[in-house]
What we know:
This protein has helices at residues 44-53, 65-72, 116-122, 133-150, 162-169, 184-191, 284-300, 315-328, 350-357, 366-370, 381-387, 398-403, 424-432, 450-455, 476-486, 539-542; strands at residues 2-5, 16-20, 23-27, 32-36, 86-90, 104-106, 128-132, 195-197, 203-205, 209-215, 223-229, 232-238, 261-265, 305-308, 342-346, 390-393, 410-414, 439-442, 464-467, 494-499, 513-518, 523-525. Helices cover 27% and strands 19% of the residues. Helix 3 (116-122) packs across helix 6, helix 4 (133-150) runs antiparallel to helix 6 (184-191) and helix 4 (133-150) runs antiparallel to helix 9 (350-357). The strands form four sheets. A seven-stranded mixed β-sheet has the order 8-7-6-3-2-1-22. The protein is globular, with a radius of gyration of 24 Å. A hairpin with a 2-residue loop joins strand 11 and strand 12. The longest helix is centred in the N-terminal third of the chain and has 18 residues, at 133-150. The protein is α/β, with parallel strands linked by helices. This is Beta-Casp domain-containing protein.
Amino acid sequence: MKVQCLDRQNSPQNCFLIKLRQLTILVNCPLVISSLLPSNQHDHDQQQEAQTQIPDFAAVLSSYVERQKMLLEDPVGQSDMPNEATCVFSIPDLSLVDVHAIDCVLLTGTKHVLGLPFLTEYLGYKGRILATESSIEFASQLMEELVLYHGQTTSSASRDTPSTSMAKTGLSASDDGWRSIYTLRDARSCINKIQAVRFRENITLFSTMRIIPYSAGHSLGSANWSLEAGYEKVAILSSTSLSTDIHPAPCDLGVLTGAKVIIFSDLVNNGNYDGMKQDEIEPLSASKNRLFSYVGRAIRSRHNVIFPLCTSGIVYDLIPEIRQYLATMGIEVGGEDQSQLTMYMASPVADKSLQYSNICGEWMTDQHQDMMYVPEEPLIHGELLAKGGLQVIKSMDGSMIGKQKIKEPCIVFTGDYRNLSKGPVKWFINRWKSSSLNVCIFIEPDTPPLNDLAQSITSNSEMTLLRIPIDHRLTLSQVHELLERHCAHAAATVHVLFPKFQGPDKWTTYGNMKWKTYESGEVITIDLQHQWERIAVTEKVIA
Length: 543
């Protein structure tokens, strides 16, 4: 068996190529998003650093000339305003991978689907793609939002040359790997190629391998996967959460039972916590208490709060938690009375996200599932939408947002959190920038550093910017406990793989466990030493 991490250097490690029993499985196709700040787009020192880190992406597309031309000539993040920050995108390094040799693509969660259109529409992959139903829908919404923010809804008839479009962002032609976003048409075509599956559904691949998704507990539809071939079982855990106080179905640890290889990825990353070591990371409860205290302070002083965050996922828990906290302060959320506080969600896909999430009760906890059989919606934001306590702002145009009556003080959830120089978040920051009592809070774990974000805001802004990551993913200590509980007494050798920067250097070795760390581009060979093999004999052979 061979495992290779395909993510680029200095990128989150979530994409793997697994070869088992002459079958090739690709796990995840994430999208790396980087914001080019106006002051840095012509910084040649940073260009040189990027050149050393990013392989030649154009080589991947060489056999697809027409699609390559469309991709390479697509202007990289042209902005309507000359001082706007620009977002560029890249996918894992597939330059040495024959995409036609991939037998199946497995997707573990919504955010790990976002790079898939590059694989299916530009690289020509035509094999099977598996993901849960809710992951597919939320990924479709996020793709639409990305295109509306950073790209074009259709292919443009008039395009700049590659050199011209690169020059507009300060990138040189050798910065291969970073490109503009795909079109909305390509995103929809890609989504239609994904096969929807359910938790614990058995999928057979070429009568040789059995593939089973298990709940990962991190977001609606997030899945861990097991690959079973003969007496060999591989467990893939990505974006997993053991939290019991959030809305998704709890993590199903059955994925670990009998596994001979366990691959961990997308763990809590020390780098997301401003340099704190693993044992110094602020407990989740403390982060939430600090978050709520800032929200309460701003609202009590008759000022406003902005949350730039994804329009699906953690926001479904954040809305009822903030509502409950404010209730303890005597502040009610609702639209029926002028004295009540109103929340807003500003995104072109906000309405889709809020409405769809409340028909996904079967992907939630038992408590939320029980609410499907009574005249209540599983998630509290459904009630707030009906009463006006939560309102949707669909427009991205500042002039249109300005025409909508915004009742202040208020709390606003915006969509794209990587670029503050465009879209609704830009309009709200400009509106409330004059007071430091107005607060903009970033809670997504992969939010860029505050110093970078601050540069995309006008220099005269007094608004308070805070970065308080709310991260439910597995920590190393939780992984340690899981392995000790489920695998320490396994009769056969269990191979456990971690990202290199998160490897268990000081852990005790339990029983037959073997630790290995992986890094981008490294190929790890694992000898499973199987002594028995399952075979099928037809009646004709027996005779």
